[in-house]
Amino acid sequence: MIYAQAEDDFKRVETNYLNSMGRLAEAEGxxxxxQDLRMKMFIDPADLKTxxxxxxxxxxxxxxxxxDGLNFYLAKHPDVKPRVIRHFEPWMRSxxxxxxxxxxxxxxx
Length: 109
Prior knowledge:
By secondary structure, this protein is mainly alpha-helical. The chain is built from six helices and no strands. The radius of gyration is 14 Å and the shape is flat.
C-alpha cells in the first residue's frame, strides 16, 4: 500500500515523515525550525527504535514491510530524488499517530 502511495506522491509521503520526526527544516529551511523543535519535544528516535525492538513479531513484520515498500519504490525509481530520507527504517513507522503529529505541528498542542 505504501508503495502505491509513493507512486502517487512520494514528496508528500516523505514530507509527512519529515514533519512527524521533527526534520522538516532539513528540506524546507530554517523557518520550519520551531515546528521541528515542537515535534522533537514529543518524539525521540531512540525511543521509537526501542519500541520497535520490543514490538511483537507480527507488528515488526508490518513495519518491516512498510519500510521495504518505500525502499523498493526508491530502488525502482532512481529518477525520484528524496529531499532528506534516502532510506526508510521500520521504526520510522512507529512515530506518533498522524492526528497527534498534525495537532503538534499546527500548534494545537
